[in-house]
Specification:
Blueprint lengths: L1 H31 L8 H10 L6 H26 L3 H18 L3 H17 L2 H25 L4 H29 L2 H12 L1 H21 L1 H4 L2 H28 L7 H20 L4 H21 L8 H20 L3 H6 L9
Helix pairs in contact: 1-2, 1-6, 2-3, 2-6, 3-4, 3-5, 3-6, 4-5, 5-6, 7-8, 7-9, 7-11, 7-12, 8-11, 9-11, 11-14, 12-13, 12-14, 13-14
């Protein structure tokens, strides 16, 4: 539990430090350059603009500004004719949220339009509205400088961190499966199942990182010029969905084999778990990927030779097929061309 909290803090310290620094800078700009005595919304806008997952901070800041503009415009119009009061507040809030939803249906746009309308109708001061708009511009500007120029997130790091989480989860599940097969231990098998059931959460996080990396490349001039390696890593991330599915299928079919067959399967499954763990710990190391591809290729080739001796329509045959499939997925993820990986299953197919 303590390790989880410390890891969460470690991931959060740097983004939170950026938000705090942006808030302070926005406040100083609003006070010293815009002459606002209480520019509370400038630091708020800077914090809200940056307080989202990496890759969405720039668009979040722009949406915040859109909501503020809509809310102020509608509230100023309502106050002009309704002269304040609870009905003015209700009308301004209603129409500001309705118009904001028409412009952009993201929650932050609607919420900021409503907040702006409430503040303007409550204070009933036109200068307050325009000061708030200027504060919003200052806060959003600082957030954009932070997110698009000073602290642009690295899409490759985002992708590889998410990939490592998937690979480690799959490796742990397969390692527990191998232990359960060797020891014929049902409790270990249950642990392996629970570990593998957590993979969809890791895959969802990977999908989020994949989306964020694409958004960073589109919106960042620095990464737009380096889009090729990001696109390649995204393709590798796509392969992880198939790899995880193959791993789950392997664990399920292996546990369906007989007690006599299970110990012979454990070494191959443990070898795959080791390969996956190595790639998770060293995602950028080309030698590690090459070793993983070579070991998976050896396994797939061995199964292609000895697999036909396995009785058809048996759990063991299904397990061998799952081993072949996950070996191919490992090879492709490690960088081998799909055609080369598939030839490992049928080494004589290109000689016909």
């Amino acid at each position: 539990m303590r390790e989880t909290v410390l890891r969460r803090w470690a991931y959060s310290v740097w983004p939170i430090a950026q938000q705090a620094a942006a808030a302070a800078i926005a406040w100083v700009i609003a006070v010293r350059f815009a002459g606002h005595p209480d520019p509370f919304f400038a630091p708020i806008a800077a914090i809200v603009g940056l307080n989202v997952t990496l890759g969405r901070r720039g668009s979040n800041a722009v949406r915040l500004l859109i909501g503020v503009v809509v809310g102020i415009a509608v509230a100023e119009l309502v106050v002009e004719f309704a002269d304040g009061g609870v009905w003015a507040l209700a009308l301004a809030t209603f129409f500001a949220m309705l118009l904001a939803r028409t412009v952009d249906d993201q929650p932050i746009v609607i919420a900021q339009a409503a907040v702006s309308a409430v503040l303007i109708t409550t204070f009933g001061n036109q200068e307050q509205g325009w000061e708030r708009l200027l504060d919003a511009l200052i806060g959003v500007g600082v957030a954009l400088v932070f997110s698009q120029l000073l602290f642009v997130p690295e899409p490759l790091r985002l992708l590889r961190r998410a990939e490592s989480a998937v690979l480690l989860g799959l490796a742990d599940g397969l390692r527990l499966t191998a232990d359960a097969l060797e020891d014929k231990n049902h409790q270990l098998a249950d642990q392996a199942t629970r570990q593998l059931r957590a993979l969809p959460d890791n895959l969802a996080a990977l999908n989020t990182a994949r989306t964020a990396s694409g958004r960073i490349v589109r919106h960042s001039l620095t990464w737009r010029m380096r889009a090729a390696p990001v696109a390649l890593e995204q393709e590798r991330a796509d392969q992880l969905d198939l790899l995880a599915g193959s791993g789950v299928m392997l664990a399920r079919t292996a546990m369906a084999t007989t007690d006599q067959e299970r110990p012979s399967l454990a070494p191959s499954i443990r070898a795959l778990a080791t390969v996956l763990a190595d790639m998770a710990r060293h995602p950028t190391d080309s030698d590690t990927r090459q070793r993983a591809a070579d070991r998976a290729l050896d396994l797939a080739s061995w199964l292609s030779v000895h697999g036909p001796a396995v009785p058809a329509q048996s759990a063991l045959a299904a397990t061998c097929a799952a081993l072949r499939m996950i070996a191919i997925d490992v090879m492709i993820f490690a960088g081998m061309a799909p055609e080369q990986a598939l030839r490992a299953l049928h080494p004589d197919s290109d000689q016909s």
